[in-house]
Amino acid sequence: MGELEDLENRIRSLPPEELARFRAWFYEFDHVLWDRQIESDSNAGKLDKLAAEALADYKAGKAREV
Asked: In the predicted model, what is the mean pLDDT of residues 26-52?
């Protein structure tokens, strides 16, 4: 059995309160990784084209309030 399968089985066997704690921890962990990736992509200029398109759409009146 691989490491991932072992982890999946261990998670499945957690009591409900520990599963809830794990879920909260993983939610935060995943968001930190996502934030780091967005920051890295932004610093590398990978989002510049999307930002320029969004600003052009806004200036052209194609935006709407949400």
From this structure: 97
Q: Which residues contact 9 (CB under 8 A, 6 or more apart)?
A: 1
End-to-end alpha carbon distance in the chain: 48
Taking residues 55-61, what's their average pLDDT? 95
| pLDDT, mean of residues 37-50 | 97
Q: How many CA atoms lie within 13 A of 54 on its CB side?
A: 6
4-to-34, 52, 63, 65 alpha-carbon distances in Å = 21, 41, 44, 43
| 3 to 8, 9, 10, 23: CA distances (angstroms) | 9, 10, 11, 19
CA angle 25, 26, 30 (to 5 degrees): 125
Q: What are the sequence ranges of the domains in the chain?
A: 16-66
